Backbone:
């Protein structure tokens, strides 16, 4: 899978969905999730243009996101990307499905470490964790790259929807009490959409 | 945002300047002050004079400025810290908000890894409406940050080391309690609509400075009624007893006429006097705002002899001292 | 009203006190200062820190406080004058409003007849929207009164006699020009309804501080557009030329976030710099408010060497200097 | 005519009309004319209770109004009353129609002196001057006290109505420009009502 190609089309992906992300965040946060993710996507595309390797891209891209989008999701993504870059062996070329698993796991761990949230706290993790589990399951079944992503996307979709029934325990939305109940978490929904988009990309449909 | 910061530096060029290489960092014109612990703060904008209005002698050395109600970046924070560092470490002193904490923590890691600069962090958490006293460290930081800035700033100025300055900041924070009321919401420019709606004849008690909901919503109350709701809560929270000494801060959130703040101050004084709690000093005005929100908050700061001395030490910022002060 | 004044004196008991025998007079805690010309001001309330917030060292010695937007009584004015009189006469320095003028004139007669105290009066008249330059003395007094207080206060403090202090006040006034814009009206509590209506997307240029109509009503403009409308008018009014030196005051009328005032300040600076007018000092904040009115004004003060010195002299009031200043 | 009796019923007169005065003032000033006149009336009634002579009453009443009602109308009234008191010979007992003329003329002069307004500036003077002229005319015709007041009231009424066509040149309302046109001046209207009330009082009807 060509990481450069993915990186280059991230801004387009963000443009298409930013309004929804803002909207979801507005219901229980400050309505800037779409802005944040757009800035992050742009920073990552720019970083890819000058990066030599996928590792460089993750490290430099993470640093760029850190500067460009210092909101919660931005900083979690940035740290997670840097951690993932550090975890990849320096000689990594294109990403294998195993490499992808390592990236995902490292990112999820770093998000937990830095953000201190647990599953069930109504965050991006509530979609991310189930997606990674589904991905790993698929890997054991030797599914193809695009099938793995599709399987992860499906799991993320279900679990993102389930965040509507959760009470937020972290970040800005945790202050909102009643006012935030019954709504899907924006970060979780983004996570699902990202997997779906990646699945389409890998299958050549997007 | 950048226009606003330029407007500030242009207004006070002898007292403030931009951090080199980062237009979102503002530091004392004379930074770094060698041999002094440096204090850095920061947070989202929309709360002036919080945060950047506290940059000045006897207060903090530098500030990172985020967009409205959002955290500045860890890189700005690190850059500010580098340029105010006077050789004795940097205290990050800021309000307890999740996004800010993540960025300041990250900045601390960057500074340790890349620059070998020591940092400690103290988060101000004084909003009694946001968590009970036994979990006070999870409270939101609101107007009471003024007392932490003032005392920690004085502690740094007199030559204390990093641990001591942090201890003073923590002590001040743990002895400060604030409660606010709002008559109108604030509108986050990015979203364009009020964070929530309040009826013309309603008010919200315990409201946060970004429009976070409070404890309860009631009919409009008079200053006297508000004080009777708020002051006993603060007294209880700080376990104040007859003979204790406090500083009082009556803070306007932006659209409240000063006239009304002084009426509130009178009521607060009356209730404290009734409990024989001694008022060592009073501050009334706009010390932390929330864009165009109409409302006010009352903070009490339980003093000891050292804190009294630090509170009285000279200090100066162009936001709080029109005519200079040191 | 009286609650408000009590709240003020309670907040700053070391710096302010009530005039004996009159709860509507507020004077310096250390008044009378012997051997100094005393300065008294006064006017309707609803404009804090105008007027009473300027009582302090290096500024004015006492203030008479009227009801919202109405003059205090001549008897209060006379009583204030008696208790601040340090043996060298009293300057009445106040904004040019009809009701205030009548009362101050009457107070002057009372003081002359009954007490043998000499007074002179200077009325600040800086609102360019209210009359053309050739009749500037009939203008309304608005935020530019700040400069008259500051310079006349410093003149009195350095020992000038009554005529000299009055001359400085007059000179400052004649060299100050202000223009304001409003985005919303103010509501006089007695009447309960806004003085006039402004649409959400409208603003009024040249508005007075009691909601007096301005020159024109326009669509909402950006800070840059407002500055381009206002600054050239002030430059023309004061006949400012390249090389002239000014002080700038960007004043918020109450409900304008400080953030926006600083954006305005940036635009004002940019326009002055383009004309090569030198900015000696800048003041940004709430120096004269109008209850909950949203808006701001820009004042320019054309300096000479003496006025510069007087502007820089130490001064202190609890309203403008949180941490003290002298 | 019993000045004490007039003084005592002034508060009642003000109560009945204060809303109208406020309303008229609100249209082109700050809406406090009724409040001002009520405070003035109360102060005058209180002063009458302790005054020995009509002269004392005018002097002390004027001083009390000065303190109680420092708005434009209050201060003009206060100064005018004090001036009138000073103008009356110390030995004055009940007021003759000639005394009344002296009082009115002195008051009008003091209002002009202190306020600096001219006839036509849309003030109380625009009703007061014509009223005094009518009164003086009647006096030459030897009309009775209540007829004099009625004649003055009629003149004041006509001229107060005519203030609607005037542009305000003084005081607060002069700033209002367009916004104040077409409205009767509150002070002028009060002046008419006062004459009318005095006429009724003198005729024993009020
Ligand atoms: N502690 C946390 N750990 C992981 N994800 C979190 C945490 N807190 C919030 N989030 C995610 O961040 C999203 C909001 O991101 P963003 O809009 O950038 O935050 P903010 O504007 O409050 O700084 C939420 O929808 C949630 O999924
Ligand atoms: N210069 C003046 N001379 C005489 N009467 C005046 C003058 N200015 C205003 N008035 C009268 O005073 C009335 C308003 O009185 P008041 O409400 O007490 O004034 P304000 O509230 O503006 O101080 C006007 O209706 C007018 O009749
Ligand atoms: Mg958000
Ligand atoms: Mg945000
Ligand atoms: Mg009035
Ligand atoms: Mg009036």
Residues:
């Amino acid at each position: 899978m060509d990481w450069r190609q993915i990186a280059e089309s991230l801004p387009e992906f963000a443009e298409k969905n930013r309004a929804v992300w803002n909207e979801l965040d507005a219901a229980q946060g400050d309505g800037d999730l779409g802005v944040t993710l757009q800035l992050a996507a742009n920073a990552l595309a720019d970083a890819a243009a000058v990066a030599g390797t996928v590792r460089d891209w993750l490290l430099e891209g993470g640093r760029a996101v850190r500067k460009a989008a210092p909101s919660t999701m931005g900083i979690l993504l940035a740290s997670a990307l840097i951690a993932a870059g550090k975890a990849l062996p320096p000689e990594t070329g294109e990403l294998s499905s195993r490499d992808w698993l390592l990236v995902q796991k490292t990112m999820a761990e770093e998000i937990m470490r830095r953000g201190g949230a647990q599953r069930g706290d109504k965050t991006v993790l509530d979609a991310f964790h189930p997606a990674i589990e589904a991905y790993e399951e698929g890997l054991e079944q030797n599914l193809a790259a695009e099938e793995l992503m599709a399987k992860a996307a499906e799991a993320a979709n279900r679990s993102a929807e389930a965040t509507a029934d959760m009470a937020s325990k972290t970040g800005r939305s945790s202050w909102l009490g009643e006012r935030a109940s019954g709504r899907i978490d924006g970060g979780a929904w983004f996570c699902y959409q990202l997997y779906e988009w990646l699945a389409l990309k890998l299958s050549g449909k997007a | 945002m950048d226009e606003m910061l330029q407007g500030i530096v242009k207004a006070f060029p002898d007292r403030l300047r931009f951090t080199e290489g980062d237009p979102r960092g503002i530091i004392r014109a004379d930074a770094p002050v060698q041999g002094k612990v440096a204090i850095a703060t920061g947070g989202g904008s929309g709360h002036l004079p919080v945060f950047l209005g506290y940059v000045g002698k006897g207060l903090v050395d530098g500030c990172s400025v985020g967009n409205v109600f959002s955290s500045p970046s860890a890189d700005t924070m690190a850059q500010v810290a580098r340029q105010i560092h006077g050789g004795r470490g940097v205290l990050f002193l800021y309000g307890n908000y999740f996004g800010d904490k993540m960025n300041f923590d990250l900045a601390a890691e960057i500074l340790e890894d890349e620059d070998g600069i020591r940092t400690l962090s103290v988060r101000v958490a004084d909003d009694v409406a946001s968590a009970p006293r036994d979990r006070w460290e999870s409270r939101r930081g609101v107007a009471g940050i003024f007392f932490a800035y003032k005392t920690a700033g004085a502690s740094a100025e007199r030559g204390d080391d990093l641990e001591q300055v942090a201890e003073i900041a923590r002590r001040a924070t743990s002895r400060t309690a604030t409660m606010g009321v709002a008559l109108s919401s604030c509108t986050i420019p990015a979203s364009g609509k009020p964070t929530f709606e309040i009826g013309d004849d309603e008010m919200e008690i315990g409201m946060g400075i970004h429009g976070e909901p409070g404890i309860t919503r009631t009919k409009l109350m008079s200053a006297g009624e508000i004080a009777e709701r708020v002051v006993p809560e603060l007294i209880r929270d700080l376990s104040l007893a007859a003979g204790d000494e406090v500083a009082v801060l009556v803070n306007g959130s932006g659209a409240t006429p000063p006239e009304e703040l002084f009426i509130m101050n009178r009521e607060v004084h009356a209730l404290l006097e009734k409990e024989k709690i001694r008022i060592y000093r009073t501050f009334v005005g706009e010390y932390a705002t929330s864009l165009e929100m109409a409302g006010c908050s009352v903070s009490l700061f339980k003093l000891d002899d050292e804190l009294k001395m630090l509170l009285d030490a000279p200090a100066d910022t162009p936001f709080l001292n029109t005519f200079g002060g040191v």
About this structure: Chain D has a mean pLDDT of 93. Residues 3-202 of chain D form a domain with the Serine Threonine Protein Phosphatase 5, Tetratricopeptide repeat fold (CATH 1.25.40.340). Chain D touches chain C through 26 residues (CB under 8 Å).
